[in-house]
Structure formats: C-alpha cells, structure tokens
Design goal:
Length: 81
C-alpha cells in the first residue's frame, strides 16, 4: 500500500489519483498518523445487459397473424416499396 501525506495529496493530487486509478490503495497520513485510505472503486460489470426477446414475445402472442394496418409498415421496413 502506498502512502501520501495530506500536503502531498493537496499539491500532487493528479499523481495520487493516477495511483488509485491504476488499482493501488493509498493511505493518507497527517503528522505520521493514518487518517484516510483511498481505494479504487470496483469496476462496473462488463457483461452486456440481457434484453428480452421482443420478437419471440410477439410471435407467442400473435403467432403468424399480421394486423391489416401494419402491412405497409412491414413492407417499408423490408425494403418492398
């Protein structure tokens, strides 16, 4: 664990912050006594969010039925003009 005084923290904050961003824990001391500890935050979860399968849900509800008013929109989305 790295250590920094309150004075160093005030004068060299970008350097101390770089240590914390690199995953290092920094203990802050005042007159030789520890007063605080700066620790990196746990990284956010990197797994992608699982979205519901809306198309499968619609197929389950409506089956193969196509509502009469939606046919022009479907043709447009498919590129059939």
């Amino acid at each position: 664990m790295k250590s920094a005084t309150v004075r160093q923290l005030r004068q060299e904050f970008p350097r101390v912050l770089a240590l914390v961003n690199a995953g290092e824990t920094v203990q802050v001391t005042l007159r030789g006594q520890p007063v605080a500890r700066l620790t990196p935050v746990k990284p956010r979860r990197k797994t992608p969010r699982q979205w519901p399968d809306f198309a499968a849900r619609l197929r389950r509800i409506y089956g193969s039925r196509v509502l009469p008013d939606s046919q022009p929109l479907l043709d447009h989305l498919r590129g059939d003009r």
